């Protein structure tokens, strides 16, 4: 950069930039942006477990209240089983059945989420599946498989 004498009447601090130069700079900026996006997309993805741990850490304040509630509930169940040993098997069986129910619902949700992410499902077509005529339709419809 050259020094400019302030006493001169015609001061020009920045030379006029031609349209060609502006076009070249804009094209280069677009190329750089496209390259950066390509690098971001092609970078190795985060494993599912690491993403879950990160999400758990991010939402730790909300999750902590559920953990405390779970610990209190577990302590109460242990106390009931100690006081009434004849109910121990019934309590454990009921707890196991509830756990299996939650696990099956979580598995179904994960399968639908993966199907949606992979493009195997379409949310626009909804099919209600009924095994028997006398059954009520489910509260939430089953998402159809994409063809």
Question: Descriptors for this entry?
Answer:
mainly alpha; 7% strand; 4 helices; 147 residues; Cytoplasmic protein; 2 strands; two-stranded antiparallel sheet
In brief, what are we looking at here?
Among the domains are: 47-82; 84-121.
> What is the rounded distance between the termini?
64 Å
Helix content: 55-70%
Contiguous low-pLDDT stretches (5 residues minimum) are 9-13
Overall form: elongated
Beta-strand residue percentage? 5-15%
How would a textbook summarize the main sheet?
A: 2 strands, antiparallel
**Which value, in Å, is the CA radius of gyration?**
32 Å
- Provide the residue-averaged pLDDT: 74
Output the number of helix runs.
Answer: 4
> Order of SSEs, N→C?
HHHHEE
The tally of strands reads: 2
Strand line-up across the major sheet: 1-2
Category by helix and strand content: mainly alpha
Protein name: Cytoplasmic protein
Structural features, described:
The chain has 147 residues and is mainly alpha-helical. The protein has helices at 19-42, 48-58, 60-83, 88-118; strands at 121-127, 142-145. Strands 1-2 form a two-stranded antiparallel sheet. Among the domains are: 47-82; 84-121. The chain is elongated.
């Amino acid at each position: 950069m050259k020094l400019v004498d302030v006493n001169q009447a015609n001061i020009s601090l920045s030379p006029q930039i031609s349209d060609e130069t502006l076009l070249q700079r804009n094209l280069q900026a677009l190329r750089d942006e496209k390259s950066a996006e390509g690098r971001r997309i092609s970078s190795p993805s985060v494993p599912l477990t690491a993403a879950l741990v990160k999400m758990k850490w991010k939402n730790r304040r909300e999750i902590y209240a559920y953990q405390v509630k779970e610990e209190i509930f577990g302590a109460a169940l242990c106390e009931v089983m100690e006081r009434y040993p004849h109910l121990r098997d019934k309590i454990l069986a009921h707890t196991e059945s509830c756990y299996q129910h939650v696990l099956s619902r979580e598995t179904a949700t994960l399968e639908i989420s993966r199907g949606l992410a992979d493009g195997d499902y379409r949310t626009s077509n909804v099919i209600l599946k009924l095994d028997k005529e006398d059954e009520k339709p489910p509260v939430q419809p089953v998402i159809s498989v994409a063809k």
